[in-house]
From TrEMBL:
Organism: Paspalum notatum var. saurae
Gene Ontology MF terms: metal ion binding; oxidoreductase activity
Keywords associated with the record: Iron, Metal-binding, Oxidoreductase
Family: Belongs to the iron/ascorbate-dependent oxidoreductase family.
Keyword Metal-binding: yes
Domain Fe2OG dioxygenase: 188-288
Name of the protein: Fe2OG dioxygenase domain-containing protein
InterPro entries, sorted: DIOX_N (IPR026992), IPNS-like_FE2OG_OXY (IPR044861), IPNS-like_sf (IPR027443), Oxoglu/Fe-dep_dioxygenase_dom (IPR005123), Plant_2OG-oxidoreductases (IPR050295)
Pfam families, per database record: 2OG-FeII_Oxy, DIOX_N
PROSITE patterns: FE2OG_OXY
Coiled coil regions in record: none
Amino acid sequence: MEGLLSSAAGRHETLPEGFLLPPEQRPPASSAAVALPVIDLSGPRDEVRRAVFQAGTELGFFQVVNHGVPAEAVRAMEAACEEFFRLPACDKAAFYSDDAARPNRLFSSTTYGAAGERYWRDCLRLACAFPIQAGAAAAAAWPDKPAGLREAVEAFLAPARALGMELLRLLSEGVGLPAGYFEGDLSGGDVVVNVNHYPACPDPARTLGLPPHCDRNLITLLLQGHVPGLQVAYRGDWIRVRPVPGAFVVNFGHQLEIATNGLLKSVEHRAVPDAARPRTSVATFIMPTDDCLVAPAAELVGSGDQPRYRAVTFHEFMRVYKTVGARRESVEKAFKI
């Protein structure tokens, strides 16, 4: 289980050489006082729709509160995930794998690095077809420790996905598409959860927990925890995202950008570790089916507007994405017309 940072043997007093990144790969965050909008989803629907669309088009990231995911489900999910990473290494060893094709696994660093870089992160990846059945076969492939982890994930995923679908309906209306445009194959793939764990780092200024990247999916919902670490690209700088208790951070993946012909953009973001405190975040990804053809919506390329992206199946997109890497410029070069 080489490389598993969160095991007892993985605690370092100095930063191992393999994690040292050159300065140009870790520019510091801006000191500018820019904050992500925090949107109360319990407000009048027209106001919420405008706020979601405005935040999405201006920053590509926003936070939502009063989102309908039960607080007890959020607390149980966060607690179970944090407890998983406190387990002894021997209890996690059977789940560890470097095989990126496995839908359920524990791994270290990241799948984004194309040049052998290593990043200060462990990740528990869980996938499940939707709708989730109680005691579903997918859940049987999840870790059986700690006790209650499987139940917490099952109880969390259904309302979290429902929140994502409601946000997609609001965004559909905001860009002029039918409210249900993103239902069906565009959102019918597995629900995927990445539980990212960033142990306390002896030299956080010289490494990253996750490199700059754009998400590959349709829409992402993140519980970022109480320790700061998420940073978002904004006008040539990096802005720090302030944790808001109980909130989800929302951002768009490449599939949403392609489908809206660039009206909604997938924005680069990264994670930085903390010198004193471990950080655990929970990212929920809504994905298309593998054979779904993703293309600019016909409603958004009429009246003289041209499609900015070529149509591509999600399977083909992922094949190219894994080859060129997750940086925005690389993906745009591969799929933009």
